Amino acid sequence: MTDTVSRRSTLRLLGAAIAVATAATGGLTPPSRAWAQDKPDAGVAPRVEALIAKLTLDEKISLLHGATDPATLGQAGYVPGVKRLGIPPLRLADGPAGVRVTKHATALPAPVLLASAFDPALARRYGQVIGREGRALGQDVLLSPMVNLIRTPYAGRNFETFSEDPLLSSDLVAAEIEGIQGEGLIATVKHYAMNNQEKDRTTVDVRIDEQTMHETELRAFEAAVRAGAGAVMGAYNKVNGTYACESKPLLTDILRTRWGFDGWVMTDWHAAHSTVNALTAGLDMEMPDGAYFGAALKTAAQDRSVLEQHIDRAVGRVLTVLDRFGLLGGKASPRPARDAEAGAAVALEVAKAGATLLRNEQGTLPLTAGNIAVIGPTGTLPFVSGGGSAHVVPDHADSPLDAIRVRAGRGAKVTSALGEDLYGKPLPASALSPDFTSEGQGVGTGKTWTYDGKLTVAEADEWTFVIHYSAASAALRPKVLVDGKELFPVKPGYGEWFSGGLIYTAPDGLNVRRATVRLTKGTHTLKITAKGGDTGQLFRLRHTTGATRAKDVAAAVRVARAARHVVLFAYEDATEGQDRTSIALPGHQEELIEAVTAVNPRTTVVLNTSSATSMPWLARTGAVLQMYYPGQEGAAATAAVLFGDCDPGGRLTQSFPVDDDRHPVAGDAARYPGVDGREEYSEGIHLGYRWYDAEGVPPLFPFGHGLSYTSFSYEDLSVRTAGGGLDVAFTVRNTGRRAGVAVPQVYVGKSPDLRLDQVVRVLGGYRRLSLRAGEQRHVTVHIAARTLSSWDPTVHDWALGTGPRTVWVGASSRDLRLRGRGDVRG
Ligand code: BGC
Asked: Edge-to-edge, what's the strand order for the sheet holding 186-192?
């Protein structure tokens, strides 16, 4: 390539050439003129073109895939720059709830808790914290936000994303991206697209129709593009037969041509599957290495299976974003210092704002009396964040027990009981022959430690063996065999490496794995092999049994009986790489709740869970407070809500089903988790609350639900046509005796003029209002034309749903207080 003029025209012409070359891709829709037209990238600045002209082929290729970082900041990805031309190296860090590096950072509440506040302005501030910290911690690109919709309650990453509603997710992602990028950190919206579950995430082929895709999952990605996201991360899964990371319909037709995205697309980690196909379909960067976009790309360029212009196009996209962020030519602004105090303040505010009070009978909350029992393992241990790539090393984390003690004050009596022992007790020496110390065994570098002995069991019982070990690699996990059966086998797959959540990590940071077996009375063989590897390792073998569990529950019952109030912390520990198999609380927590509420009905259950939970014990509780994974300030936030220092400001961003049999993907394996690698999104546009409404199935708690410590009335509804949509005006009044937060929601019904499948009602808008006792506010919520439109697959475009449409205002999707009608005009 020589002069910039010919290069610019080449880049423009290239689009058309690629369209011809890839017209036959298995698509999401049949090619139509509107779809298949492949426009060239519009905004490649002359200075970026000039820079590309100076790059050698090797240098270009080095910008298109990840490599090993010579520094050790601990982030997920690294792309070396080209120093001689002032192109800086890029460091790419997770993630959704704060900056994930080796150093400490603000561990913000999980995104689902942020979303529960229904407050885009707060999402912007959340983004600002991450943006500044990312820059301060040596990062250039953030691998977040995640906007995949909550489609199934089982999905392992529901806590990392926002909601089941496209409008809410769109509003939040746009605001958060503005916050992140306003601080100079490049945001990456992920995982594009249809990565709505972890089960088989790297292989599953999602079959989804065009209308569903546009009306549900794609909307928040589009909002992210409109908000200027610098990067997009392609998903692991396939969509309609093609891997998302090499899907031309997704990467070119929709992202570039329809939405005008001018940033770059990277793969999810190890999600590339080809070189030529992927590059020509629109993928720009492979992460975290160069299996396909390294040497293979050079060969492809040399034997002309890809044109160098294709490579230039990808490089141009990366450099365009760096240019936009002022990172080229050594001109990047100096990195700021961390502001840990400001981060902590936002973390606290978000956790309080998103705290969702699901039930509150007979004034159980706020707590008043100073005689409180705190029960549950996560009452004593801080449960900060979920596992996997969303785990952040928090600046600090207090336990809820301490926070409750502090808040309850000096004269108060606060007792506690574990209720369930998550990390096990040492093996009883008397049961081992020969005896050994299973606590803190150290194995030297390169050494192997073995035990070959007998374990004698006095009564038949269910034993859970719990191993704690320091090795970072699963391959060095100590082997434990009971009666010849290996208890902690290493299963192949990326999910093996995850740690960081409550369940997989002990309070002192060791990795934890559990295995449950039934042991008969008598003697069993026990063999252990632990290897020191390159750095040596530490491990412990612990256990619980039916008998130890019964004792733990009995202790909890004792303290519950003696207290006036009980706060029982229940957990569910999710991580990427795996889905839940049931929405019930894991382990023996249901029994614990039953036992405790039986002796003290003034029990508040605090849920530190990732997503929806079934609650067969609900009617026996006084209150239920949903806190999800509340971040490093979670304990203080939880105590503040429990004692009524603030109103619980959150509302559910996902429907909670009654049980495993009554939700949108229940009882249909083709719908979830897929059959023979293929999954049908056969619920169509009826996702989340839309499905419950369409099917007439009552949820346990509906989308939008959340109680306040005060009460609100809704009055004076008026609806008028405005700006291609509808303006919905109404008055909300605080009718109680204390200040509180109302989140009125506006829903809109079907259009009589559309011959397309439509949902019963859809969220059209919302407003978060803080009102003093007796205060009233007249608000206007605009329902945008996009929300009033359906995607028409016959013309591959939006069709406005004109005509008279019912409008509701309510406190949830099932608590509709006002009803009116608006006229939508085209
Ligand atoms: C996750 C991504 C994450 C990446 C890097 C992948 O396993 O799916 O969300 O950004 O790892 O940590």
From this structure: 77-79, 90-93, 141-142, 186-192, 231-234, 264-267
Name the closest-CA residue to atom 6, ligand 1.
269
799-823 pLDDT tens trace: 999 999 999 999 999 999 999 999 9
Q: Is the CB of residue 70 less than 8 Å from the CB of residue 89?
A: no
For the segment 638-650, the average pLDDT, to the nearest whole number, is 97
The yes-or-no answer to whether 347-422+548-686 and 426-547 have a common fold is no
Distance 268 CA to ligand 1 centre (A): 6
- Computed over its alpha carbons, how large is the radius of gyration of the chain? 28
Where residue 491 falls among pLDDT bands split at 50, 70, 90? confident
| pLDDT band of 391, cuts 50, 70, 90 | confident
Q: Say whether the peptide bond before residue 400 is cis (omega within 30 degrees of 0).
A: no
Q: For residues 801 and 754, give the distance between their C-alpha atoms in angstroms, rounded to a whole number.
A: 6
Tokens describing residue 595 = 């036992």
Which one from 140, 268, 647, 693 is the annotated catalytic residue? 268
For 712-824, CATH number?
A: 2.60.40.10
Mutational pocket test of ligand 1: of 91, 94, 198, 286, the residue with most ligand atoms within 8 Å of the beta carbon: 94
Q: Answer for the pair 596, 556: CB distance below 8 angstroms, yes or no.
A: yes
The domain spans of the chain are 2-330, 347-422+548-686, 426-547, 712-824
Look up 268 and say whether it is catalytic: yes
Average pLDDT, whole number, for the chain?
92
Q: Strand locations in 472-536, DSSP E?
A: 479-482, 485-486, 511-519, 522-531
Mean pLDDT of 405-410: 94
CA dihedral 237, 243, 245, 249 (to 10 degrees): -120
- pLDDT given at position 331: 81
C-alpha torsion 509→514→519→525, nearest 10: -60
CATH superfamily of the 2-330 domain:
Glycoside hydrolase, family 3, N-terminal domain (3.20.20.300)
**Which pair of structure tokens corresponds to residue 395?**
């600046």
Least confident of 4-18, 156-170, 227-241, 485-499: 4-18
Q: Is the pLDDT of residue 79 over 60?
A: yes
* Helix residue ranges per DSSP H, 228-294: 248, 276-281
Residue 387 in this model has a pLDDT that exceeds 90: no
Q: 196, 268, 494: which to mutate for ligand 1, most atoms within 8 A of CB?
A: 268
Which atom, in ligand 1's list, is nearest to the CA of 144? Answer: 10
Quickly state the pLDDT bin for 632 (edges 50, 70, 90): very high
Q: Which of 411, 370, 371 is nearest to 559 (CA)?
A: 371
Q: Can you tell me which residue has the tokens 């070959």?
A: 452
What is the b/e burial string over 163-177, where b = at least 16 CB atoms within 10 angstroms of the residue's CB? bbbbbbbbbbbbbbb
The 10 Å Cβ neighbour count of residue 95 is 26
Return the CATH number of the domain spanning residue range 347-422+548-686. 3.40.50.1700
CATH class of the domain defined by 426-547 = mainly beta
Residue 472 pLDDT level (bands cut at 50, 70, 90):
confident
Segment 707-761, tens digit of pLDDT: 999 999 999 999 999 988 999 999 999 999 999 999 999 999 999 999 999 999 9
C-beta of 268 in contact with ligand 1 (< 6 A): yes
Query: Would you report the helix, strand and coil content of the chain in percent, each value rounded to 5?
Result: 30, 25, 45
pTM score, two decimals? 0.93
Residue 199 and residue 158: Cα distance in Å, rounded?
13
